[in-house]
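Dear colleague,

Following up on yesterday's call, I've attached the two folding results inline so they're easy to grep. Please treat them as preliminary; we haven't cross-checked anything against experimental data yet. The first protein's sequence and structure tokens come first.
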Amino acid sequence: MPDASEAALRLFASLAATIGAYGAYKVVAFLYSKWTYPLRFLPGPPSPGFLAGSEKELWDAESYPIHEKWLGDYGPTMKIPGFLGANHLYTVDLKALNHILMNGTIYPET
């Protein structure tokens, strides 16, 4: 019959294996989503950092020159790096905006 220390060791080992498997799953899911993300081929500015991305430049009231530079460099539709590596679609294309606004049931607000 196993003693208490052996049972505790087995419990710890199974808990560590479960946490390790979950961590591996999350890493694979993150990489898979990056490799299959529909916006991955859109041009856009590089991310200044993983944590905040370009959120500061995007929402700063004094950042109009940066928006103009991005439009000149990347065109009217681009991806903007966001918080924790997320990418956001940024467009000023009137035809695309009209389609999105007229088909609100297809493009839910997030």
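Below is the second protein, in the same order (sequence, then structure):
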Amino acid sequence: MSDIQTKVAARRAELAQEEKIRSEKQAALAREQKIIDQEERLKVAGESTTDGLSPVEIEAILHKQAKSLWSTQDNVLVFGLVIGGLILLPVGGLGAIPIAIGLFMANSLGKRYRQTLRDRYPDKFGRADT
């Protein structure tokens, strides 16, 4: 009797896991659709994008577009430092240094590429005083 109960419990856990994965996929698709909708609104707005979008929406699009400018080398360097730091973390906390460097590099690359986009498209993203 316990064998059947074990199988039923395993199947229920499997179904719950599948439902969780399905809901996570739906949430990810909804987030992606929201970004696509924002980009469409940006295209429709034309020259003066601040009329059609809030500053938060413009920053979200700017952030996404800046991430798309990252080269493969940028990604490998940042993720390599963070993952290497996580691996070294149990060794006397030595991993904190590469993690900090990786996070700093990710932040500085993001700022640089956002500024590049602002300089390239001042009519869409405006100029920042940074």
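For the second protein, one point worth flagging: The helical segments are 2-45, 49-52, 55-68, 72-88, 96-120, 122-125.

Best wishes,
A.L.
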